[in-house]
Amino acid sequence: MDLRLSDEHRMIRDMARDFAQKEIAPIASHYDETGEFPHETVRKMGAMGFMGIEVPEEYGGQGLDTLAYVLALEEISKVDASHGVIMSVCNSLYCYGILHYGTEAQKQTFLRAVASGEVIGAYALTEPQSGSDAGNIRVTAVRSPDGSYYTINGTKSWITSAPVAKYIVLFAQTDPDAQPRYRGVTAFIIDTDLPGFHRGKTEPKLGIRASATSEIHFEDYRCPAENRLGEEGEGFKIAMAVLDAGRIGIAAQALGIAEAAYEASVQYARERYAFGQPIGQFEMIQQKIADMKCRIEASRLLIYQAALAKEEFKKTGRRYTLEASMAKLFASETATWVTKEAIQIHGGMGYSKELPIERYFRDAKVTEIYEGTSEIQRLVIARLETGLR
Ligand code: CAA
């Protein structure tokens, strides 16, 4: 694995780092506290091209590779994980699916608008009764007799960015008799300004509080047939393939959170004195620092490996599901563990809202839950490794 960063990679990483430090760092704790959506900084991120990093320039994106995306997302998430997930969903869950499965017309309209930062995109798979069991979809899409539109009814839940999204990639059941049920799932691109689309209340959350999450409801929503993404019955595979890309993004988000907590801990271990010496000279703190560093660097290697595997996929078509799941599993569990240890190192100050350490801890937890829980990542990895189901 060649880990040397190109000039282009360094440039996008530095750009994201500067932007995050100048624009996001001063406002991150305010938006965490209030739970408001940070419209202005998100708009600026869009204008800088952070919402469509891998999308070719002809569709309004930056035309860069997965490693560039990962590096930028890591830097944004290091300062604020809420901005990180908004960026990740636009890039991976929304743009990636339309880039790979969309028609030319869909790319020109729906991909361009999000990749160029004009509007926000979202992805709606989860339903109140189906989270991990993603194939068990109850939202229905019924084709009109003349085939020109689909009538969509039902509810999706826990949809990141739904309160602010203009377009949403939606998965619905077009063949309720299909066996297994996932073979009846079809993907659609939803324009949230059309009649029949409703947003539920924004979820109050433990962490990533500045990212907006809600239910969405469809009541006889008419989706034009030309907004179907892929073929009928192809939706579940699209959802899964898109999640492979998304999981690399969440892994990069987790890495950013862990790095922020780690750097603060190293600084604190140097500056905080106890019993006449910096606490970093105590072996119990040294052990924590060493283990945090090793787990973070191991996460980074798994993430970069997954990014390279995704680039290979573009050339060979070989799925990178295993690499993506390993990166997400390890990086998210690392983020949760590192942020917990960071609070311990900081003692009372780690528990105080005066420092961002407790925010890192709250933000980290969701990376073990969304885009497939740690249990689902283990299931995916074990199935692929053993060939057993
Ligand atoms: N790429 C392409 N195709 C895939 C695939 C992938 N990664 N994974 C599975 N498939 C295909 C399989 O080959 C199979 O195809 P065939 O019918 O041709 O055999 C089909 O899909 C069904 O696969 P499985 O039998 O493995 O399906 P399953 O019902 O056993 O489910 C699962 C597998 C791994 C449990 C899956 O349901 C899953 O990943 N669940 C977690 C869902 C999830 O991550 N939700 C997150 C919601 S989004 C979110 O969180 C966004 C946010 O807020 C930020």
What does this protein structure show overall?
The chain is of the alpha+beta class and 389 residues long. The chain has three domains: 7-119, Butyryl-Coa Dehydrogenase, subunit A, domain 1, CATH 1.10.540.10; 122-233, Butyryl-CoA Dehydrogenase, subunit A, domain 2; 236-386, Butyryl-CoA Dehydrogenase, subunit A, domain 3 (Up-down Bundle). Helices cover 52% and strands 15% of the residues. The chain is built from twelve helices and ten strands. A hairpin with a 2-residue loop joins β9 and β10 (277-278). The relative contact order is 0.12. Bound molecules: acetoacetyl-coenzyme A. Acetoacetyl-coenzyme A binds next to α5, β3, α7 and α12.
Summarize the structure.
With 389 residues, the protein is α+β, with helices and mostly antiparallel strands. Helix content is 52%, strand content 15%.
From the structure above, extract its key features.
alpha+beta; Butyryl-CoA Dehydrogenase, subunit A, domain 3; binds acetoacetyl-coenzyme A; globular; 389 residues; 10 strands; Butyryl-Coa Dehydrogenase, subunit A, domain 1; Butyryl-CoA Dehydrogenase, subunit A, domain 2; four-stranded antiparallel β-sheet
Topology:
Elements: H1 7-24, H2 28-34, H3 39-47, H4 66-79, H5 81-101, H6 104-115, E1 121-124, E2 140-143, E3 149-160, E4 167-173, E5 185-191, E6 197-202, E7 213-224, E8 228-229, H7 235-271, E9 273-274, E10 277-278, H8 283-316, H9 321-346, H10 348-351, H11 357-365, H12 374-386
Parallel strand pairs: 1-4
Antiparallel strand pairs: 2-3, 3-7, 4-5, 5-8, 6-7, 9-10
Helix pairs in contact: 1-4, 4-5, 4-7, 5-6, 5-7, 7-8, 7-9, 7-11, 8-9, 9-11, 9-12
The chain binds acetoacetyl-coenzyme A.
